[in-house]
Amino acid sequence: MSIINMFSRLLSTLWYRLLRRARLNPVLTGLALFLLLSVGSLLIGLLTTFDEQGQYGHWIMWFNNASVLMGWLSIMAAWSLALLAWAHRKEAATAFLGTGKEVKEAKEAFEASLILVSRNCQTEWHLRHIQPKRIELVWTPLVKDQTNTLLDKFQSIECFESRQRSLSNEHAYDIMATKQHCLFLLRGLLDQHKRERVCVDLTAGTAIMTIAAFQAAEEMGVTSIYLLGQSATKFQARIIDDKKVDDPNEAKVIMLSDRRGEKL
User: Fold this and answer.
1) What are the helix (H) ranges across the chain?
2) In angstroms, how far is CA 236 from the centroid of its own chain?
3) Radius of gyration, CA atoms only, the chain
4) b/e code 197-223 from CB counts within 10 Å (16+ = b)
5) Tens of pLDDT along 17-55?
6) How far is Cα 76 from Cα 42, in angstroms, rounded to an integer?
7) What is the pLDDT of residues 197-221, one digit of tens each?
8) In 3-state terms, what secondary structure has residue 161?
9) What domains can be seen in the chain, in order of their start residue?
10) How many whole angstroms separate alpha carbon 208 and alpha carbon 178?
11) Whole-model pTM?
């Protein structure tokens, strides 16, 4: 029994090492297995050729039949796995639908928004021309006063949690803390509005805030957008001009990831 256990442990160790090696370098592992099987088949063929007396005939036939059976089983398993992988595939192209397209019906499409805040003109253009019924803002104490002043101009738009809850200046550069903050605010919006009627505006904020908010939107199955200003600075940057926020043509709503048609 100890010999059987030792042999079993040896096979188990070899199997797990093979799996680990395959994970690290699948191409070389596949070639090594192919070479091993080829050498084994060659040895069986040589034994069959030189066993003129038939001394090992029954063993050779057993190995030959076993190799044929294993070959058929491996082919069927490979096709089964290939069909299973194809059935459950998720093409990369479908992960971010509508990327780069202009959303011309944004006012009708969205009734709630999560908005990253830095320059007031971007937030104000969103509130004036997309006109959500409810918003939540991702902002830091650095823009507290200007944000509250802006919200006072749009008192008909509901804003609950983010009036009292802001990111600390340190968390604005902590991707996980910012992501959790965005998830919290999104859950509040989704409690009151259908998922396909909610969007995340990623135009403003730090790079960390943008990445975190986008990840949160994808996890919750919420559409993400950004505003492309139509005014150019002396460096040819596309911005929303502070003096033109009343103009609906001052910015275009561009899709980043359209999640409205998905069933979660």
Assistant:
1) 2-24, 26-50, 57-87, 106-109, 120-129, 144-153, 161-164, 175-192, 207-220
2) 32
3) 31
4) bbbbbbbbbbebbbebbbbbbbebbbb
5) 665 665 556 566 666 766 776 676 666 666 665 555 555
6) 23
7) 999 999 988 889 999 999 999 999 9
8) helix
9) 2-92 (no CATH), 94-257 (3.40.50.10770)
10) 8
11) 0.63
